[in-house]
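Suppose you are handed only these lines of text.
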Amino acid sequence: MEAQHKPGFGIVGLGIGRAHMDAVAASKISTLVAVCDIIPEKLHKAKKKYPFVHTYESFDEMLADPGVDIVSICLPSGMHADFAVRAMAAGKHVLIEKPIDITEMSARRVIEARDKYGVRVGVVHQNRYNACMAPIKKAIDSGRLGRLILGNFAVKWFREQSYYDNGWHGTWDMDGGGSLMNQAIHTIDLMRWLMGEVASVRSVMGIYAHDIETEDMTASVITFKNGAAATFVSTTCAYPGISTDIQIYGTGGTIEADADVLRTWKLRDSADEEAEEEEMLRLYGAGNGGACSADPTLLVGHQAVIEDMADAVINGREPQVPPEEAIKSVRIIEAIYKSARTGEVVFLD
Ligand SMILES: NC(=O)c1ccc[n+]([C@@H]2O[C@H](COP(=O)([O-])OP(=O)(O)OC[C@H]3O[C@@H](n4cnc5c(N)ncnc54)[C@H](O)[C@@H]3O)[C@@H](O)[C@H]2O)c1
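From them, the structure of the protein bound to nicotinamide-adenine-dinucleotide can be written out as follows.
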């Protein structure tokens, strides 16, 4: 029997791209083929760690490498669509770091190119693989949480000024925003994935503790098409970095988590509410680490995203987060910024 072809990855941008590099190297179903960066020092370090990897200072030269089947785009956010389209035009599948791009308009170019060139495109929203997310999603989708009433999402993180002093973070043209577009987009993705399509947003934003162009705090009231509502706050001013609250209340009960750590699991339809919560907290109350050791087959984070992308290419299926999903987070964020600027409620169609 012929051995299964393991798709080869070429990674452009060696910041978070190094996590892609390590995940591909650890994967049994894909191969690390090439890396690209304009900083030679980063290429040298990659070569030292993985002596077999091809290194390129030119993106076009990496695209000409016949061993590269999938290009991971790990560049500053405002460059994503341009580079993704170039990769697709060269016949490559593409995995794009979040956000898909910083505007809905440029994200649409990714979808058009994918359809034109007939390749696979996935976007990195790895928090969906946090261990507690699958049971939360299941409890909502199966109706156990009943009718959704309220969500409370709060991304209370911290970044030093030095984080913003390095060039593109906190700029409109490359980061597309601040605490919301860069950090809280993960939780925007989770909120919409769990609670449903957004109907409207009413928001404020400001710059409080950093010298930046965009924002370091947003606060929004969100309504959903299913009638539920939520509050959503994001900040990079919450010293020293506090929590990521994901709290959902329905007629059937309450589920609360802090990022990947399940905190509360109270479902009214449970045969034994206390015993069920105890068991859920035993499995998921320690975050990804605890749950992973309880179930070593459970993959988390970037590793899971890389495996999903490689498998999608091997089996000719859509990746878990296709551009149509990722674009929705960008639309919500654009609506929040528009509402904060105009002081008006912004409706999404
Ligand atoms: N999923 C996550 O948790 C996560 C975490 C961090 C960053 N990100 C996303 O990843 C992207 C990159 O962020 P980062 O923190 O790694 O940024 P970074 O600035 O640390 O790294 C970007 C790299 O791209 C390189 N680069 C720039 N222009 C290039 C070009 N023309 N050709 C080749 N290389 C070029 C830079 O030299 C740099 O090494 C952003 O979109 C960010 O939102 C996602």
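What can we learn from it? The first strand starts at residue 8 and ends at 12. The chain has twelve helices and 14 strands.
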